[in-house]
Design goal:
Shape: globular
Distance between the termini: 15 Å
Low-confidence stretches: none
Order of helices and strands: EEEEHE
Mean pLDDT: 86
Helix content: 10-25%
Strand content: over 45%
Strand order of the largest sheet: 4-3-2-1-5
Number of helices: 1
Oligomer: single chain
Structural class: alpha+beta
Number of strands: 5
Radius of gyration: 13 Å
Largest sheet: 5 strands, antiparallel
Length: 76
């Protein structure tokens, strides 16, 4: 499962990608057009990872600085 967000940082378009794979949450963020910086967190079980994924997505959706763009094409 993956969620993709974009935002404007000091007139520079940026992105944030949050991915859930079983017990692992990966985030990748940076300026659009770059690879960005990736992080990974492994949880003890898939349920805890899913809860954290939902919390992160909800946090970004509630923040007016971020917006989700469905169907945007981008490269990993």
């Amino acid at each position: 499962m993956m969620q993709y967000f974009e935002y404007q940082d000091e007139k520079v378009p940026c992105f944030l990608e949050i991915t859930l794979e079983d017990k692992i949450i990966r985030t990748r963020s940076g300026q659009k057009g770059t690879q960005g910086i990736a992080t990974e967190k492994v949880f003890r079980d898939a349920g805890k990872a899913a809860e954290e994924f939902e919390r992160l997505v909800r946090e970004k959706k509630d923040d007016d600085a971020f917006y989700f763009r469905l169907g945007d094409e981008y490269r990993l």
